Amino acid sequence: MDTDVLVVGAGPAGLVLGIDLARRGVPALVVERAEELFPGSRGKGLQPRTMEVFDDLGVLGAVRAAGGTYPVGMVWQDGRRAGEHRMFDPAEPSEDAPYNEPWMVPQWRTQEILRARLEELGGRVAFGREVVGLTQDTEGVRAEFASGGAVTARYLVAADGGRSTVRRLLGIGMTGETVDPNPTLVADVRVSGLDRENWHLFPPGRHGFLALCPLAGTEDFQLMAHFPDGTAPDLSLEGVREVVTARTHLAPEAVTELRWASDFRPRAALADRFRSGRVFLTGDAAHVHSPAGGQGLNTSVQDAYNLGWKLGAVLRDGAAADLLDSYEEERRPVAAEMLGLSTRVHRGETRRGDATRQLGLGYRQSSLTRETRTDPGPLRAGDRAPDGTVAGIRLFDAFRGPHWTLLTLGDGAPAVPDPGARIRVVRGPAPGPYAPGLYLVRPDGYLGWAGDTAAGLPAHLARFGLSGVSVSGLSGLSGLG
Q: Where does residue 197 rank: exposed (0-12), middle (13-18), buried (19+ CB within 10 A)?
């Protein structure tokens, strides 16, 4: 094999997977058919759960420095400010959920940050590598490139977008619906005559809706314009100027520069399968969203985050290969739920609130989840592991890294010895939403196992290649194991 994992596509999902594999010591190669990273701002909203993922991957500081909060919407009417519009329901940060609101970063900048982190960890992106052929057997996958040559890998992950070549080569269909049959223009522009403290909204009059959102950390605005008559947008500078002039009080020369433009017809579609043999689908290759609600990029990142630790467990830790079956089991229902949410937001049937933050998503019904308590309370195995402080240790600091974490909370919780580098132990009083007991936190920050005693925990750990861990016989352990 040339590599353990071949990742096709250097969008957010592909780069996140590359990072996660690199920090686990799993040989992987990320290939991209274009000659450079995606140049547009398209997926500009990072939800709180994605910010938690980025905290774990070591890019949160750079992401926060590159972006900012969403501005208040300013509604314009006949060249005058007619009122404000809040895009998101407000939410206050808390100890268990420190990232409370979406963070705006242009997608091109997010991808630059992720690529830099991948290279820092020793990974790389090979550009100009378009996959045109694919074969697999029981040992591995062979991908052939338009430029010539091929790569063989134990597993291949398709992160090559909504028009995925890999998905087509596998013959996997997508089931969905058109959310809006009419096109939308999205472009990155430089504009004079508008402040950068507001998201400028121009309601439809004789023409369709138009919005100009200042992109945090840049001098650009993201323009979005709907074409309810079905007219195909003109993606040239003159075409964009014409649209802005027709729908706002701005003169054509106010649009001083066009940096990127594209058009799309919003649709919602879900791949019929997320896996075929040794090939997995992630991100837009597996699910295509309306941009409303900001769920597409975020769901894609979390696909990769779910798959990365499982590939690592199989390829590095000796876990059985059937662990990888849980990727589709866990992620396809979540993607379906987020597709429905995106569509409802697009149609004005629900607001951008708690559900769009993605903090409530979990895997209670997963075959990987074990809840052994008879009276578990509101926080259960399968749920996201909340932040908090235990014996002076912030839990998100303890979770950060490719390891598992075992929380032994409360005076009556059984103590455990240091099980080694792959499991970190935190002992102390139960904080916030946690009840006293034992909690095993997966590498992706979800509670995989919970119990009042350690009965059954060693057998559960063995499924992930973590056999031989003793959980009895010692007391008084505190802090990080």
A: exposed
